[in-house]
Amino acid sequence: MTSEEERLASRRNFLRGKIHSEEAAKTEAVPKTGLSSAASTAPGAYLIQLTRKAMACQFEVYLNAVGPGTETEAGVAALDLVTELEQQLSAYRYDSEICMLGATAYLRPQVVESRLFELLELAVQLYRDTNGAFDITAGPLIKAWGFFDREGKVPGEADLASAMSLIGSNRLTLDETHRTILFEKEEVELNLGSIGKGYALDRCREQLCEAGVADFLVHGGTSSVLAQGVRRDGTQRDGWEVGVPHPLRPDRRIGTVHLKDEALGTSGAAFQAFFHEGKKYGHVLDPRTGQPATSVLSATVIASSAALADALATACYVMGPEETEALLTKYPDVSVLLVKEGRRRGGVETILLGDMDQRLALAPTSQ
């Protein structure tokens, strides 16, 4: 057998699940993913981990290492789908569908791919429900603050006013009958950064479920997580145990939750910010004011879909406690954790809304 034949045979064996237990042990979740590893030495506790760089982060699929090899093939196919979706959704690719709409949809209504059209409808509905705190037209504002190029800067008054004149999802006209979108004026643009990763995870779930995979966890950059079925690690716990990141200490967790057939999204700006004249400016912007949001340190949302969890995490971060509590009257099945600065330096306070008080097990150092 040639070296090339050996390589292909090795890949086929891997995809069919022919992994020796010693090798499988190397695929268990690493702490930064947020997965619990407490039972990693229990019989059947090993995980298969598949990874792919996409959408400026690491996407990962976790599968229980007890199923048929076809599950691994389905996981690879799900990651292939993420790559395809990046080409459609990215604001950083001039030939993506999102950017092409920005270049033409102000001239005349443009037909939109059916699934993307559904996502845009959801985004516009969220814009209305959050009174503008969630807004996929905030691209010009992101650019004015330098976050698009990852070089933060404080914009001048004229630049900020110019950007704000283009903001507002009410400038988008969606025609459900013809599946088209029309922009109110030139230079209006779409940026799906606050919902795109979650949408990609939802599409991964569809693909994996259609392939007959019942139990899996997928995440995009650890801030967007979707769990289906159960973690078969020899315990009786229901679902998958996922860590909620601490907004100030990346090596710690605020606590853990168990997810089953649902998703979690976290928004925060502690580690994506810049300083100017001694003041810190975070990258999560309030589209209503044009300024960085400062109400909380982080917002974590549990919802039925990853797109909804991601979008609401951003909105709740922008809105803060009072507006978030009012929003939940429209989303009674959503749970929210808001983390604020504590009274002591370096300390934090938690605000649990919905049924988050029943879902979240706080870490001892967070209580």
Automatic annotation (TrEMBL):
Domain of life according to the entry: Bacteria
Enzyme class: transferase
Presence of keyword Magnesium: yes
Cofactor(s) needed: Mg(2+); Mn(2+)
Pfam families with a match to the protein in the record: ApbE
Record keywords, A-Z: FAD, Flavoprotein, Magnesium, Metal-binding, Transferase
Transmembrane intervals: none
InterPro entries named among the record's database cross-references: ApbE, ApbE-like_sf
PANTHER family for this protein: FAD:PROTEIN FMN TRANSFERASE, THIAMINE BIOSYNTHESIS LIPOPROTEIN APBE
Gene3D superfamilies: ApbE-like domains (3.10.520.10)
Molecular function terms from GO: metal ion binding; transferase activity
Family, as annotated: Belongs to the ApbE family.
Residues that coordinate or bind Mg(2+): S194, D310, T314
Record EC number: 2.7.1.180
Cofactor note: Magnesium. Can also use manganese.
UniProt catalytic activity: L-threonyl-[protein] + FAD = FMN-L-threonyl-[protein] + AMP + H(+)
Listed name of the protein: FAD:protein FMN transferase
Keyword Flavoprotein attributed: yes
